[in-house]
Amino acid sequence: MTPTAPSLLARATSFRPNHWLQGSTTPRAAAECVDRMLAFALGLGTWIFGAGNAAEIARQSHHFSAWWTMLALAGVFGTALLLAATALQVTLPTVRKIATAHAVVFAIAIALSGFAVGPGQITDDVAWVYRLVPLAGVAATLVWRTPAMSCYLIGVGLLAAASTGQATGDIGWTEFALTAVRILGIAAAFVYLTELTQRAARLLDAERARARPQDELAAEARASERARFAGMIHDKVLATLLDAARGGDATMLARQAETALGQFAALGRVSELCTDVEAIEAITREVAGATETELRVRVRRDYRSDDLCIDSLAVAALAQAAAEAVRNSVRHAAVPGRVVTREVTIVAQARGITVVVGDDGAGFDPRRAAADRLGLTVSIRQRMREAGGRAIIDSRPGAGTRVTLEWAVPNDS
After folding, report:
1. For the CA atoms of the chain, what is the radius of gyration?
2. Residue 112 CB neighbour total at 10 angstroms
3. Where are the alpha helices (DSSP H) in 248-391?
């Protein structure tokens, strides 16, 4: 079955761009969609008026000069047809150029109408072209700012009122004033509704622009939370299960399980600030619980670190990344025939904390490590990056491994 083409209305209100003409994947703004719909409605509305008043136009054409009738019909209805046909397809600047042409041609037709008909020739209330002044006001609203648009509308309205007096033979000031007020009043209503619609679309775009950074932050927060969850699954659940499968010590396994449950319960809590002493205690506690093998922990504090305030999420990242580095060392750094020495050094300074996890074990080539290794990629590197820090892994086969975790106070703190 051949798919049906989308309706004109659906294409106008769709936020998918015209790739062939715009060459962009940026969604259309609400203001652009509204301007396109107004231009399309202007073109279509002009032709609906022409169809509904065809008899009157034909009757009045006998009283106007042929040159003017050709100019008015071709200029007004020709540009209107072009608007209706292209408003939803071509670029918005092109749509505005066509609307400008429509407004200018209409103004010329109004200005010349008084020279194309003799006094008293039109017995109807007004000539047909004067009834289109409100739609010309819509065209002017699409292309000009309020001052220029107002001057255009007033000028066209006064010309229409003067030409009406000429065509109907009633050129008195009273009739001129009443006709001008009537034409301008109806046109002003159309213009007001058009500007109101445009203003609402601009407000919608402004609200979207303000909301976009918040949406991006929320998305980043969700991604960070998923990464933390994945890291904890790897560090705690999988690590505990792996140790259990290897016949690990029951006391250590129970402690690991209890720690994992506590950290899962802490997910989503509001972050707090920790002192340097609290941070050191948390890191020391985490790395000490990561293994039952001998592990030396050294601490150095700069006297200026007393004023250091660290986000608890950053402390958790440092502690968990360091613990994962210790577990990786226990699992992968063993050397047959000798005992591997492991050491953790925690350094607190005025502007941040550095944790170094080192061993003299087997080592490895970080460049050859699989990119999808959760221990290195998620539990260490990504965890530190999301906390505002960084992880440096220095290792060579046969020369041990040194993992350096650094976190510094942000510059705006």
Report:
1. 38
2. 17
3. 250-266, 276-288, 312-332, 374-376, 383-386
* Cα 30 to Cα 96: distance, rounded to the nearest angstrom: 16
How many Å apart are CA 364 and CA 361, to the nearest integer? 9
pLDDT above 80: residue 272: no
Size (the chain), residues: 413
Query: pLDDT band at 378, cuts 50/70/90?
Result: low
Phi, psi of 235, rounded to the nearest 5 degrees:
-70, -40
CA–CA separation, 265 vs 269, rounded Å? Answer: 9
pLDDT beyond 80 at 37:
yes
Of 4-8, 182-186, 302-306, where does mean pLDDT reach its minimum? 4-8
CA distances from 278 to 268, 288, 315, 341, 353 (A): 20, 15, 9, 27, 12
The encoded tokens of residue 97 equal: 């150029």
Q: Are 300 and 348 in contact (CB under 8 A)?
A: yes
Task: Examine the pLDDT at 169 and tell me if it is beyond 80.
Answer: no
